[in-house]
Write a structure and sequence with these properties.
178 residues; alpha+beta; four-stranded mixed sheet; HPF/YfiA_ribosome-assoc; Ribosome hibernation promoting factor
Length: 178
Amino acid sequence: MRFEIIGKNVSVTPAMREQIEKKLSTLDKYLLIDPNTIARVVARVYPKGQKVEVTIPTKVGILRTEVVDDDFYAAVDRAIDKLEDQIRRQKTRLSRRHKENLAVAFAQEDEQNEEQQEVLVKTKAITADEMDLDDAILQMELSNHDFYIYTDEETGKISVAYRRNDGKYGLIEVDNSK
């Protein structure tokens, strides 16, 4: 695994870089991590703590976590623990369902600045990959988002799986017929 370590409001020291690389290298033991995978780590310093954000795109989904702690090294340790839990849950789900590959939605970000309105608009273009509802919920949980857009295998319709406030899941199916 390769590393992209960025410091916001802090310069990343060699000791910080070494600790991050050492801890993230322990994730290589999992089959989901490819040697060409780039782990993106953002370290931020706030007046009330230090935040570590880790994003790792894998073959079957995106592993992502954010941790805030008073101590930078404790935040890194907690982030690694969260990533290991995500990987364990993901592997359990995959082995339970006997699936080798899951479809992944590749998001492309494009930010536009409209000078007339002085509004910053963030846009994303996605590919609504074909999968079933269970796989869409898995991808939503792995990406740590509240919703996931995909194409339903059975109906061929674009659908949105989402997490409700009561912790349950919901489904929206898009009907293009008028």
